[in-house]
Specification:
By secondary structure, this protein is mainly α. It contains 5 helices and no strands. The protein starts with a helix and ends with a helix.
Length: 117
């Protein structure tokens, strides 16, 4: 479980500066595994919520204390507006998957919606 979380967080960090082709390759790689997709997106949502908190300078405690430096770095890099858009994009994707949307298309849309560093 911790290894899967670590891997999901590393993938997000790798994808933020990645090209569209690299992002789509990631979507292609994981789209067939329903459980993995949802688990990855939930981990990303947790981190992106922390980024949003940090970007706004809020005093709220972040969930990913072990990634505090990364959260602060991402908050500086993407800012509050893009942080909010990223959180909403992941939430939209999870909601679409809950309505049985085409998993690959939902992930590709998310890849387009994530901010670029």
């Amino acid at each position: 479980m911790l290894q899967a979380r670590r891997q999901a967080l590393e993938e997000l960090r790798r994808l933020l500066p990645a090209s569209r082709a690299e992002r789509f390759a990631f979507a292609e790689k994981i789209h067939r595994d329903d459980e993995k997709v949802r688990a990855v997106l939930e981990v990303w949502l947790s981190l992106l919520r922390d980024v949003l908190i940090a970007a706004h300078g809020a005093e709220a405690r972040i969930a990913n204390l072990d990634r505090q430096q990364e959260v602060e770095s991402l908050a500086t890099g993407i800012g509050p507006h893009q942080g909010r858009r990223a959180v909403l994009a992941v939430e939209r994707t999870l909601a679409a998957l809950g309505r049985h949307a085409n998993q690959r298309l939902a992930l590709e849309t998310l890849m387009l919606d994530l901010p670029r560093l």
